[in-house]
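Section handout 9: paired folding examples.
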Amino acid sequence: MSVLLHNIQGWVLDSCSLIDRWYSRCIRYQGGRTSRVECRFKRQCFQVLKSHFSVSACAAADGGNEDVLQKTDKASKKRKRKHSELNQGEVDSQAFHEKIRSVILEGTKTLVDSARSVGHLNGTTDTAKEPLPFQECSLAALCEMAKELPLVDEEEPEECVQQLVAEDGCTSHVDLFSRVTENGADSAIVVTLMGEQYVIPPCTAFLLSDFTRMQPLVHSGSKFDLIVMDPPWENKSVKRSRRYSFLPSTQLKRLPVPLLASPNCLVVTWVTNRPSHLRFVRDELYPHWGVEVVAEWFWVKVTTSGQFVFPLDSQHKKPYEVLVLGRYRPPADNSTSSSVTSEVPVEDQRLIVSVPSALHSQKPSLSEVLKPYVGGEAKCLELFARCLQPGWTSWGNEVLKFQHTSYFTLTPADEREDVSKGEATRVCTDKPTITPVLSSPPPCHCPTTVD
């Protein structure tokens, strides 16, 4: 399972094992035929073996089992600038870091020590050194061109939704840019879309569009109990690298969260370590949507041996990111008061510790961590997504980025396991859930996008 352990400080996750579970049953559509394939996310993406410390610190870190905070404190001795040389943003960042430093340090040590005691984060790996997969992603550019396409009639919600695979196994009819697309089968499928092959998890729905073309998602009629978003925050690094187009903070207010959220919906936002972004989410964005802040959590990134990936006190990059959690509070009325009083309280300052993906902007799935706070039957939505999750609806202009087959190892299964079209297209009919697909999949819950 992806949650290796859970205690009062937080969770230790194994992201790669969770992804593999999603694709434990996978079927390839090719040339009008269906066949089983074994599908695994490439292991080298989650093999961060060494911290990004100085050379001398890395050598010391390779020497054994010193605890994580001692290694961090010894890691980097770069000369710090005088306080007077810091700009206001850097002063604010330093103050925020000092405020949460002990929470990060002590909580991570406890979680990493516990993980090591049960055989995890011990630095062992069976993965040969291989280059990271890379696929030139042109989805954002395609979304830009797709703005010329007409949108479906907003008065007909059922017209906003389409099945990914037709009865004849064809996907050429699919309009990915103007309709919500569903894989209604209880198996992952490998399909060709726009001339490229993608692996689509079971019981999932997605809309490939940019910020100005979210109408099909809104008009589909769904209300969600959990909304997770990873906005493309504006910063100097993004501007220099041009990895992706950023969105000014003020534009985030235009996201139609109140139209997508059910009463008491849990809203979770990934925030960079810039205090200005954190203040904006807490003081402007959430109040604008009617979302009440209930907690701040921290994703702590460690190596396979449990060290921080960056020095904890580095002035350049921190080994953690912030998540702001809030509850959507619609205008009070008698119909929602009972649901608000029965909500599960969200604890503050919890840690999520995991080995990060070496692929830029691939965040760990929060499905298992958030399940106790929203329930197993919750309808879940991810905004600015770059991958898909079973039982979730996802939106973004790169929503299929990490579904490309270049990020997976696909091997044909035993020929005796070839499947018929009827089995391959078995459809989920139950309510959506965030419970991941197990190695022996339970009845699947499809993310119905039409109420």
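Moving on to protein 2 of 2.
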Amino acid sequence: MAGGPTTPRLVIAAAEAGGAGVLAGGYKSAEALAAQLGEVRAAGVPFGVNLFAPNPVPVDPGEYDRYRNALQPEADRLGVDLTGIPVTEDDDAWRDKVDLLLADPVPLATFTFGLPDRAVIRALRAAGTVTGQTVTTAAEAEQATAAGVDLLVVQGAAAGGHSGTLSPDRLPVEKPLADLVREVAGVTRLPIVAAGGLTRGGDVADVLHAGAVAVMVGTVLLLAGESGASATHRAALGQAGPGQTVLTRAFTGRPARALRNAFTDRFTATAPAGYPALHHLTSPLRKAAAAAGDADRLHLWAGTGYPDATAEPAADILRRLSARL
């Protein structure tokens, strides 16, 4: 969970509970990631790292200007000026982070958003790192298998935050995660890690029965003591009734699932595609909203199972999820 929720403490807690935490490399400099890697390594636990592989969605300049102008009244409420923010099409320091993982290898590296070059995958594997790719369809699973990764993270549409789809111009198809796991298992022999909407022990058992060898969870840990979710995000999760998530491009220009709020209601239908340009455009507005306790203008990433998130140690949450296995 990039952007703050997944902390080194959460990664360590997951490992100490018998799992393997995955440190979020997205939205960090290579130097910041290296510092967090050092903290996790010092604990001597198994762990992984997730990177955003480049798969940009170019934004139409006219649509960008239109959207920026539409957002400015919202930003004005928080004292933020968006008028000087240019179109930014960076790659999240991709090469620097890959070089970091090659110089100081980690046990597991997974990729989201895009499929890395085969040379990158080969180099990481040669360094002793197990590699994994997030996929959202059987067709994407075939592409990742051909690219040479070691495992697949099969993400269903119920997942919170960004969809890992390799085709971000389209919203992910909503279907039960167990069905998606079966479809992917039908086209590849790679190990499958199931992700998306898994917040109860029965859900975990279902996807393992469908063919997954492990599961990955995020939303159910947002309220854990080790989570880095903001106080505004935590409060909104605790107050939202069931069935209140929406898939939206409004915050970043790429499909992501969040709690409905005034921002998603107003801008989901009109937000242009464009990642990471829209991410950079809305970032100062969102940071100001979090600091001000303004949940109506914040990206409240959450999967459909958010009502099951509880404020307790991560180890207790994870052990409960695995109790029926």
